[in-house]
Specification:
mainly alpha; 130 residues; 5 helices; single chain
């Protein structure tokens, strides 16, 4: 077996992009499921609040295609800020923003930890296989 035939080491950040996409999809579904609340308490889906919630859910779904980009994380955090800013119109949506902001901050902390461990060479995938 030559050096060319050796399998490439796995990239943990590639897997993290999948986690980010999955989280965005779950968040979009959760935000979309809040539409009945907007309909009941927010004055209806055809109001500005309703259209904002729909727009945020659509943008969350579209952001899945851009998680490789360097500007994806700031966009995701900005979307959380938009959800939290809805506290004045619909507090239930703001609660979702706070919950998912906590999820994203935890995921970003995990990503930083993996990057630190990868730089130090202490990941399990970086260890010699027996």
């Amino acid at each position: 077996m030559t050096a060319q035939d050796a399998p490439k080491p796995k990239d943990p950040m590639k897997g993290f992009r999948g986690v980010m996409s999955g989280t965005l999809i779950m968040e979009a579904i959760t935000v979309a499921l809040a539409l009945p609340v907007v309909n009941k308490l927010g004055g209806g889906i055809s109001t500005g609040t309703g259209w904002t919630v729909i727009a945020v859910a659509v943008v969350l779904l579209l952001t899945c295609g851009f998680v490789k980009r360097t500007w994806a994380v700031p966009l995701i955090l900005a979307l959380q800020a938009v959800l939290i800013a809805l506290v004045f119109w619909l507090p239930a949506i703001a609660v979702l923003g706070v919950i998912f902001l906590a999820v994203w901050l935890w995921l970003l902390w995990l990503r930083r930890d993996v990057a630190r461990r990868m730089a130090a060479g202490t990941l399990a995938s970086q260890q010699p296989q027996p």
